[in-house]
Specification:
The chain is an alpha+beta fold. The chain has helices at about 1-10, 55-65, 80, 95-105, 110-120, 125-135, 160-170, 175-180, 205, 245-260, and strands at about 30-35, 40-45, 50, 75, 95, 155-160, 185-190, 195-200, 210-220, 225-230, 235-245.
């Protein structure tokens, strides 16, 4: 994996891919790569730094998975419970880590992101250092995290190139790969909640044959963002679009083009 990541870092210039005739991508920045080889099949402004909204949670999940055991119990803090656009975690609630991953990656819950960050890092600041340290270790040269959730994009940025590297690495983690490919998940909860039914925000899982990840994102600053993957006939492609007026259409065009190139 390390060698493959190095190859991807070294080989993601748009000039290395032949012109994509007839491929019209509306997003200002986009990329499609072969996940197996790291080969770039198409790229547009791949090194342009942009806000990334909830695609931030890919890194949040990875770092949490490296520092927390799945059955470890997290006590939700008052701060985490008050984060906007969450899944309704309550202060003092005791939640196994594995449940928070479904809130984080399917429902894109910001309270789950903060709860995991506080549990894995001890403090928000230390968790951000872990996130940025992981980015440097993966060679993400144009990525910076100032938030575990992506809710606030000020100072939180990346590029389609770096997000493709990150997604390629993340899909090599079995737990992550399984969760992001899940359409629905019913998770039993303690009363009075009893159960939660999570539905994946990534509608590409329903709209594109072979789609198996990864993460959506939206804020006013970032626009519509989508890191996606799809697998057909043993070939997995990874796409990234940032600030797209039609993130699913752009992604489908990229995947169709990529599979034609690899067919």
């Amino acid at each position: 994996m390390v060698a493959g990541l190095a190859a991807l870092v070294a080989g993601t210039s748009a000039s290395g891919a032949p012109p994509a005739k007839g491929l019209k991508i509306k997003a200002p920045a986009a990329i499609v790569i072969d996940a197996g080889t790291g080969r770039v099949l198409y790229a547009k402004r791949e090194h342009m730094r942009r806000p990334i909204a909830s695609t931030t949670k890919i890194m949040t999940a990875l770092v949490a998975m490296e520092h927390l055991r799945p059955n470890e119990v997290v006590v939700v803090t008052r701060k985490a419970s008050r984060v906007p656009y969450g899944e309704g975690l309550k202060a003092g609630e005791r939640v196994p880590v594995w449940k928070l991953y479904y809130g984080l990656l399917l429902a894109s819950a910001n309270d789950s992101a903060v709860a995991l960050a506080e549990a894995a890092g001890g403090t928000r600041e230390r968790f951000l250092r872990l996130m940025n340290g992981k980015a440097r270790a993966l060679g993400l040269r144009n990525t910076q995290y100032r938030s575990a959730s992506g809710l606030i994009d000020e100072g939180n940025y990346s590029t389609v190139h770096d997000l493709a590297i990150l997604a390629r690495y993340a899909l090599g983690v079995p737990r992550f790969r399984s969760i992001v490919a899940t359409k629905h998940k019913r998770v039993w909860w303690k009363p009075p909640t009893r159960a939660k039914l999570y539905e994946n925000h990534n509608k590409l899982l329903w709209r594109y044959a072979g789609a198996d990840g990864v993460k959506t994102g939206w804020t006013r600053a970032a626009g519509r963002c989508l890191v996606a993957s799809a697998t057909r006939h043993g070939i997995r492609l990874i796409t990234v679009v940032l600030d797209s007026p039609d993130h699913y259409r752009d992604t489908i065009h990229l995947l169709d083009y990529g599979f034609r190139r690899r067919g």
